[in-house]
Amino acid sequence: MPKPDIKKGDVVVLKSGSPDMTVAEVRIPKIGGINQISAFCEWFDSEGNTKQKWFALVVLNKKFNAEAIQEIGSSSPFKRFKSPWSAFRKKK
Fold first, then answer.
1. Could you say which of 33, 34, 75, 78 is the most buried, measured as most Cβ atoms within 10 Å of its Cβ?
2. What confidence score (pLDDT) does residue 73 get?
């Protein structure tokens, strides 16, 4: 069986259209007798409530992956910087 392209932490949408959903888990769930690799997704509805559901990978498109999100976060202008005042502190 080929390794799925969608993995934990990816942001996905339904091929038919949906809000952005975050993949919390990827595996073959033991529900409904369907044996296909699925993703457990979480998202917010239009009222701000958290929703969760299993979706077969064949109905999902990846929007962003976990590595890209981390890379964007590491290049953020808001990351922690060294204070210029640290040079004036006494070294112990």
1. 34
2. 57
